[in-house]
Write a structure and sequence with these properties.
Length: about 350
Amino acid sequence: MAESTDNKPVILEVDNLKKYFPIQKGFFKRVVGQVRAVDGVSFFINEGETLGLVGESGCGKTTTARCILRAVDPSDGQILFLKDSGETVDIATLPEEEMRYLRSEMQMIFQDPYASLNPRMNIFDIVGEPLFVIQQMTDREERTARVRDLLQLVGLRPEYMQRFPHAFSGGQRQRIVIARALALNPRLIVADEPVSALDVSVQAQVLNLMLDLQRKLNLTYLFVAHDLSVVKHICDRVAVMYVGKIVEISPTDDLYYEPLHPYTAALMAAVPVADPRVRSVMTPLEGDVPSPADPPSGCYFHPRCQYAVDICSQEPPELTEVRSQHFVSCHRAHELNLQGIGGARPESDHALTAGDGPL
């Protein structure tokens, strides 16, 4: 496992993860190529922290998350997970029978709360199903008490447990999804754009709830998102993806105010700043995102990069530590002086200004 930098154990280490999807053609489904959805991704997450995984749509964020939970099987690489017992296992090669029990320590919060709940099951059955199937909690009274505690934990009234999903709003449904994810006392939660389908005011409530649960239960989050304003408030560190590769990983404030990769700087220029004294200057990127089925040579970003030189089109850059805990994949990272988001660098504060009381 990788060595943590802040005296916390590394709960998850992803090393050179790849997921290629075959391109088939003709009547006999002959494989003529590969879509490199995830192409050599490496990162680690310390216990109790939140790592954001950001990038444009189609860059491989969700595929990476699904590989970590083995919802899809990776093509190559290691996914090392530190179990509650202290044993480290490679999720990428773990037999399915062992994965069944390991999933109680890893859960997922899905993007769409409307599609991720069975409309034919009431809330008691939805939240209590993992308790019955995985933990073999056959005593209904015991299961009812546990579901009641979970609903209260996420800010819902226990008397709601006999209702069906259609009776709830989007924010309430996402709280139900969170309660279901917490049923088996997981240590790692993969949140795949958990607030992107919600109204902005409800987003703040759900994010505050997730932060509160993290403090209470010592949860570790992999937070997949494309909304950089949301990521800035909830994540301790951020990894930026581009066409299946990690191009930069850094503590959140360092990434937002002092980016080292030209692609990250372009993303930061698009982040709105709520300060009328700050004049934002956004320079749109030229060209289109390359296809993961036919990526360019060298650095995948070089056809769109205004700082590209000859070596950028010839050799793929390695992800290297340029500053303390700040990793970047760029040949010219030491030379460039890139602009982050506007405004003064604030004190770190993960609280969002919106109510998060019971619904």
